[in-house]
């Protein structure tokens, strides 16, 4: 086995800068999508169709250029398509509905809730969890409970139905995360993501075609927003995140994922002028603190023991 060459300080700095750019793009993408839905006269079907087509073409092109056309058997192609259906058609349908039904700052919590759901779902699939992960999940669930109780108060901007869509989107992406890991490890990150998007979005595209917004009703900045969302959140951010995981390690990269909801919260207040009650801010901070704790990287010695135990 060929040893992985050590990374230089410059490579580490670039990887960290890319990860920080990624969380900013993902957090800002929620606010951008909210603006497109509310102020851009665009429906979810038009937004998703544009994002799928543009991001899919670019990612497949990058994958084929770097790795050639995949030589997978029919079973593998089917697995990629099914997992892609979950992570693209189903997740994006739930995610855009969550954004439309909630303030952008609350919808942005999807990224923070996902790692909280991955741990208990992983336990059901026989995966192990550390005490720190269980403690982080418990803390985050306390924040979720507080936010859920807050939705029942009259006049709240977050309703039980709207918050249910946030949980549905997070749950869908958590399942996608668990099921895509073995495929990513076996097939490679870029080929899997590119072709799972291209295949997984086909049912959504077929369903969305009759529901598209008439092109003449969309302002120029609306189309620019779709392009920015597709290339920024689905292409640039993915490439930067994958490089961060390669250079910094998956464990140390994943903890940054909890910053994206914080970016969405701040941008929703500063750009969209959303005014969330203090109770929502407090619950969101508790959720993000629990997610960060659950994702916090273990020490090198602990990682070595865990790797040895998994062999």
TrEMBL record:
Specify the protein's topology with respect to the membrane.
Multi-pass membrane protein
- Which intervals hold domain EamA? 17-148, 162-295
Instruction: Please give the chief subcellular localization of this protein.
Output: membrane
- Where do the TM regions start and end? 15-37, 49-68, 80-99, 105-126, 133-150, 162-179, 191-209, 221-242, 254-273, 279-296
Q: Which superkingdom? A: Bacteria
Q: Sorted alphabetically, which InterPro entries does this protein's record hold?
A: AA-Vitamin_Transporters, EamA_dom, EmrE-like
Please state which protein family the record places this protein in. Answer: Belongs to the EamA transporter family.
What name does the UniProt record give this protein? Inner membrane transporter YicL
Q: What is the lineage of its organism?
A: Bacteria, Thermotogati, Deinococcota, Deinococci, Deinococcales
């Amino acid at each position: 086995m060929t040893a992985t060459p050590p990374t230089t300080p410059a490579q580490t700095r670039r990887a960290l800068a890319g990860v920080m750019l990624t969380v900013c793009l993902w957090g800002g993408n929620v606010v951008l999508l909210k603006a497109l839905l509310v102020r851009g006269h665009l429906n979810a079907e038009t937004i998703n169709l544009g994002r799928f087509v543009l991001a899919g073409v670019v990612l497949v092109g990058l994958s084929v250029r770097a790795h050639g056309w995949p030589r997978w058997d029919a079973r593998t192609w089917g697995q990629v398509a099914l997992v892609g259906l979950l992570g693209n058609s189903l997740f994006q349908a739930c995610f855009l509905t969550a954004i439309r039904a909630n303030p952008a700052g609350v919808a942005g919590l999807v990224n923070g809730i996902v790692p909280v759901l991955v741990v208990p779902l992983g336990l059901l699939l026989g995966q192990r969890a550390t005490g720190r992960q269980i403690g982080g999940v418990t803390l985050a669930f306390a924040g979720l409970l507080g936010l859920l109780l807050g939705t029942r108060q009259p006049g709240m901007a977050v309703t039980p139905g709207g918050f249910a869509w946030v949980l549905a989107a997070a749950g869908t992406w958590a399942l996608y995360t668990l099921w895509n890991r073995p495929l990513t490890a076996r097939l490679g990150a870029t080929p899997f993501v590119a072709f799972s998007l291209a295949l997984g979005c086909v049912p959504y595209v077929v369903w969305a075609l009759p529901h598209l917004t008439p092109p003449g009703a969309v302002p120029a900045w609306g189309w620019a927003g779709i392009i920015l969302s597709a290339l920024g959140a689905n292409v640039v951010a993915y490439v930067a995140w994958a490089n961060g995981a390669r250079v910094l390690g998956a464990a140390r990269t994943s903890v940054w994922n909890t910053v994206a909801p914080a970016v969405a919260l701040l941008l929703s207040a500063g750009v969209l002028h959303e005014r969330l009650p203090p109770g929502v801010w407090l619950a969101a901070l508790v959720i993000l603190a629990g997610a960060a704790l659950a994702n916090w990287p273990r020490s090198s010695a602990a990682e070595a023991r865990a790797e040895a135990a998994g062999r």
